[in-house]
Automatic annotation (TrEMBL), chain A:
Keywords: Amino-acid transport, ATP-binding, Nucleotide-binding, Transport. This is ABC transporter ATP-binding protein. GO terms for molecular function: ATP binding; ATP hydrolysis activity; branched-chain amino acid transmembrane transporter activity. It comes from the Bacteria. Residues 2-234 form the ABC transporter domain. InterPro entries: AAA+_ATPase, ABC_branched_ATPase_LivF/BraG, ABC_transporter-like_ATP-bd, ABC_transporter-like_CS, BCAA_Transport_ATP-bd_LivF, P-loop_NTPase. It comes from Cytobacillus kochii. Belongs to the ABC transporter superfamily.
Amino acid sequence: MLKVDGIDVYYGNIHALKGVSLEVLEGEIVTLIGANGAGKSTLLKTLSGLLKPKQGVIQYENQSIVGKQAQTIVKAGISHVPEGRRVFSNMTVEENLELGAFVRKDKEVQKDIQKVYELFPRLFERKGQLSGTLSGGEQQMLAMGRAIMARPKLLLLDEPSMGLAPIMVKTIFSIIEEINETNGTTILLVEQNAHMALSIAKRGYVLETGKVVLTGSAKDLQESDEIRMAYLGG
Amino acid sequence: MKLACQLLPYEEIFSIAFSLAVTLYLKLFGLFEEEWGFMDWIQQLVNGISLGSIYALIALGYTMVYGIIKLINFAHGEVFMIGAFVGFYAIAGWGLGFFPALIIAMAVCAGMGMLIERVAYRRLRGSTRIAALITAIGISLFIQYLFIYFRGAQPEAYPEVISNQTYNILGAQISSQSLMILGTSIVLMIVLQFIVHKTKIGKAMRAVSHDMDAARLMGINVNTTISATFAIGSSLAGAAGVFFGVYYTKIEPLMGVIPGLKAFVAAVLGGIGIIPGAMVGGLVLGVVETVVSGLGYSLWRDAAAFVILILILLFKPSGIFGKNAREKV
C-alpha cells in the first residue's frame, strides 16, 4: 500500500531523515518507534505532504506522492493525526469533526459524525463544547475522530499516547485496534511508548537519528535484546 | 513590560490624563446642561455610529488578514481608495445607482485584494514578518502613485446618489445617508458573520488562522483560503470606500491613508485578529471622533484616534476583546 524508498528530508540545514525505507501493507498496523529527535514525526509529515523529501521515492497505491500537495494526499486517502493533537481549540467538537470531512463532497458526513460519536461516546457528550476546553485524552479522541472523518485508507498516528494517563493510553490503543479491525484502516503508528505500540502492531521499525536501524515483526522486536535495553526498560 | 514601567513617567501621564479628563468632563457636562440636549447626543451617536461603521468595514479587512497570515496589510487603505473611485466612476460615468455601484466596487476590490496577495505576499509567506510588512508599505505607496500617474491627483466630487433628506426622529436630526450607510454596513457585517461561521470557506478560514499545518492536514487548500480572506476583506474595504464618498462627498487618490490608519487603530482597539473586535473598535472610534468634533475640537478629531492607539498599546495591547475571546480569522 505504502512504500517508502530511500528518502532524504532536511529541516533547513538539519538532515533529519537519511535514506529511510519502509513498507506498510494493506490492513496492517505498523509501528515506528524511536527516541525524541529520531525523525519519526518528520517521516509522517513527509508522508502527508507537509515536508518535501530531497531524494527518494514514496509510493502510495502504486503512485508516487512525492511533491504532491497535502490536500491531494488527504483526498487520496491518507489522514494524519499530528503530534500534540492540534485540534482547532477555538471551534466546537462538532465543527472539528466537520472540518475533518473537508475534502468530502458526499452526503454521508452527518452519518459519519454519528459513527465517530459511537466510537468515542465522550465526544458526543461534549459535542457543543469548544475543543480547547477538553482534556488531553478527549482532544486525542477528537484528533483521531477528525482524521477518520476523511474516510482514510491509511491513518498516520503521531504519538497518540503523549501526555496521557495510563488508563487513557489503554483506551486510545484499544480504539486504534478497533478502527483497524472494523474499518479495515491501515495504520502507521509512531510511538515512544514502544511497549504499547508493539503490543498492538504487526510489524515495527526502529528509527535512530534519521535511519532505520532495526525492523521485524512486533514479536521479534519485543524479544530483541537491543529493544529491551533501549526502549522497554530492560 | 518591566522596562517600559521604568522608562515611562507614569505620574506625569496620569496628571496630564487627569487634567484632560476634568476639562473634558466640564466641557461635556456644560454642553449636556446647556447647549446639547438629549436628542443632540442621540444625533451625534447616530452620526458617530455611521462613520464608525465605515471604519469598522475597513478594520475587518485588516483584522481578517492579520488573523490568517499575521500581516498588517498596509495596502488595505489603497483598496478602500480604489473602491471609492470605482464607485464614483460607476455612478458618475455609467449612471448606476447606489447599490449596483456598491456591488461593482466590492467585486473590483475583491479581485484587487487577491491580486495583491498573489503578487506581493504569497512568495513572502515563509519569510520574516518585517519583510512582509515593508512590502505592504511599498505596495501601498506603489498603488497610490501609480493611480496618480495614470489618473492625476485632482479630487472628485462624489455625486449625490442617496437623496439627502433629513429625518426628524423625536427631535434628533438624522440624515438619510447616515441611515443608509449604517443599514448597509450592518447587513454586510451579518453576511460576513454568516460566511465565517456557517460556510465551508469560512470554516476553512478559521482553521487556517488557528493552525495552518493542521488545516493542511484536513485537506484545506491554504492558498485558496488566504485568497478568499483577502477577497472578502478587500470587498468590505471597497464598500467602505463608496460609503466614504457618499458621506464626505470628496474623494482623492491619497484618501486611503488616514482612514486606513484609523481603521488599523480600530482593529488594534478591538483586538487585532478578532472579527467582533474590529466591528466594536470601528464603532467606538467613530463615536469618539464625532463627539470630539461635535464639542468644537474638530481639529483634534484625527489626533483622537492616535491617542486611543497609544493608550491601548500602553494599557491593553491585546485590545478590548483580546486574550479571552480567541476567535480569530
